[in-house]
Amino acid sequence: MVGLCLIGAAATSAVLAAASLRLTSLVSTLLAAYLGFVAELGLVTWALSPLHAVTPAGLAVAEGVLLALALGAWLKRGRPPLPVRAAAPAIREIVADPVSAVFLATVGALLAYELVLVLTTPADNWDSLTYHLARVAAWMHHGGIYRIPNAPSANFNDFPPLAEQQILYLFVAVGSGALFALPQYLAQLAILVAVYGCARRLGFRPRPAAASACVFATFSFVLLQATTAQNDLFAASFAVVAACLFLGTSRSELVLGGAAAAMGLGAKPTTALVLPVLACLVLLRGRRAVLPALAGGLAGLAAVSIWPYALNAIHTGHVFGEGGWTNIGASGQQAGRPGPLSSAVDIVYQLMDVAPLSDRLIRDLAIAGLVSSVLVFVVRRRPLEAVLVALPFAAPWLVIRGGDAIAFVSRSWGFPVRGGGGNIGGIARAIDVSAFGPIGAVLLLAAPVAALVVYVRRRDDPRLIVFAAALPVFLVLLAQAKYNWYLTRFLLIPEALTAPLFAIFLRSRVVIAAFLVVAATVAGMVVTQDPARPLDGRYTFGRPWELTQAQAAYLTDQTGVGDAVTALGRDVPAHACLGAVLGAGEPAFFLSGPRVQRDVVYLPVASALGDAYNHLLSYVVISTGKDRWAAGRFRDDGWQVKRLGSYWLLAVAPHAGDGVCHAT
Predict the structure, then answer these.
(1) Which residues, at least 6 apart from 584, have a Cβ–Cβ distance to it below 8 Å?
(2) How far apart are CA 597 and CA 584, in angstroms?
(3) What is the DSSP letter of 250?
(4) pLDDT tens digits, one per residue of 484-522
């Protein structure tokens, strides 16, 4: 109940503040509320951390003050309501169309299923376990954000923490790790609203604008990330929210757009790669738009975004810290490849994704697309509409042929993407390495070209060119890093900015229906066959919402983790203070326990035994990697060393106490 009150107070403050702006657009008001909520949680956790006051009591005091301020501002502004009435005509136009209504209902069902997973399933995403959630757990027990001593990897301290600050607030509020995926889920909702808003402000009717958002919601990356503690959706939300607000008409929207662009830097540095695109949108509104946008950007930096970079510079001498972003992609590229060009080709090739479709289903969809196209042409006599009806059905086949073409060209240029000397294997055939799905791959590459054609034919809205440039600009800048398999997920940022252009293809009811059929088919297969949350209850563990943390550990892609977590729960008290000598990339969050009860103290391998005594530790988990030799020192000193499955070792003190943490 306390947790719900704290979260509700933050949400209420954000909504009241957004309503007080008296924006005429419901879309802008909702996006302002989203920005307010994120900024509030980020600002509160930053402000309370030096006092070690990120506790339920500390959050209650902060939220009481902020809620009083927001309520006072709302009352002073005359108690303005949300501008729902202004959006009513567009809503009626969308729901009155049967195809659009079914598409909305389909996406609503997907979002409802995702929400069930967000509220009920334990974490089992590898990045989330190795540092996203592990550092949140450390902050929670410390009472605020701090540089974690002896952290297993630089990611714990160097990466911007705005997404994890949202999780920290939620963990402290509810007293457990139950809501770890809520920031990503809310970010997805904000993206969908912003995509719709951008499309409307680019001149598209409500129906194609809504369809664009619905199509985006069915992409594999979106579906899979929305229920994790990763931060790619969270980072992408700020770019597209900023773009939507920059397309508005008021100075308040310019200020909010600038704040959104700056807040993105507090989530992920890659949001900087679309700042040229966002700057162009501001400049197209005239010179008078620059100052309000800059003012908002400075406010966003000062509130939540600049501090991690400043702390990195203070502690390491580099704004990006000692690792992480300073060597992104450094280990993923084959030697002898020509640099940015090969990286760009590798990234585009990895978009060629047909998972989880079988060859037979791909063939059947292509045949269905051909038949549908012929029928539409015979009945409606519209060649372009007939081609667009076939497009989603043919998308998987086009992706395969496109991948073959890229592979042929890259090999002829001397840097093959697959086979000998290549970085990548064949076309993606597994959900856990999928990108945006076949429709996403086709639309992401086709929409900028279509926007260019529309602009050349009409020459009436240069903003189309700005949105069309989002992917090329981002790709050119991203390709300066050496290729690594995870670079493709960074494309969620330009993908969200490209999504409003999907409306170019979705102006006809029959075309929307075709995209609905294929998108729903692929999305349904992705969410039900996700190896991390299989709906069929494989491995006899039951449905995703029935999993325990130990059972979720068995669904990771690392052998032995499930046995290790099971043994940890059996051999270590639930509230024990636990020492850890871990290597980078190990699922440290599991050490905290199902309800994040255990305080984990990371120990340097060279002095692990002495530090364990200094902290009065009775239990120390030791990696079986290169640092496993530390276990020998514990054994020589009389500690019992046992295996936790085949993944970790556990050292138990000769006279293990209650396990409570005691710092020196």
Answers:
(1) 130, 152, 153, 155
(2) 23
(3) S
(4) 767 788 999 999 999 999 999 999 999 999 999 999 999
DSSP helix/strand/coil, 317:
coil
Q: Which amino acid is at 297?
A: G
> Which residue in the block uniquely carries the two structure tokens 């719900």?
4
> First and final CA of the chain: distance in angstroms?
36
Please check whether residue 226 is in contact with residue 184, taking contact to mean a CB–CB distance below 8 angstroms.
Answer: yes
Q: Which residue has the higher pLDDT, 348 or 23?
A: 23
3-class SS shares of the chain: helix, strand, coil, % to 5:
65, 5, 30
With b for 16 or more beta-carbon neighbours within 10 A and e for fewer, the 295-328 pattern comes to ebbebbbebbbbbbbebbeeebeebbbebbbeeb
Q: What is the pLDDT of residue 44?
A: 97
User: How is domain 551-652 classified at the CATH fold level?
Assistant: D-Maltodextrin-Binding Protein; domain 2 (3.40.190)
Distance between CA atoms of residues 14 and 32, nearest Å: 8
Q: How far apart are CA 38 and CA 32, in angstroms?
A: 10
Domain ranges of the chain: 2-310, 551-652
Residue 12 vs residues 4, 141, 180, 468: alpha-carbon distances, Å: 12, 27, 21, 36
What DSSP string describes 135-200? HHHHHHHHTS--PPTT-SSTHHHHS--HHHHHHHHHHHHHTSSTTTTHHHHHHHHHHHHHHHHHHH
- In order, the DSSP letters of 584-641 are TTS-GGGGGTTTT-SEEEE--GGGHHHHHHHTT-SEEEEESSTTTTHHHHHHHTT-EE
State the chain's mean pLDDT as an integer: 90
Residue 182 contacts by C-beta under 8 Å, 6 or more apart in sequence? 118, 166, 167, 170
Assign 346 a pLDDT band (cuts: 50, 70, 90): confident
Centroid of chain to Cα 539: 28
Q: How confident is the model at residue 333 (pLDDT cuts 50, 70, 90)?
A: very low
Structure tokens of 205? 């009717």
* DSSP-assigned letter for residue 353: B
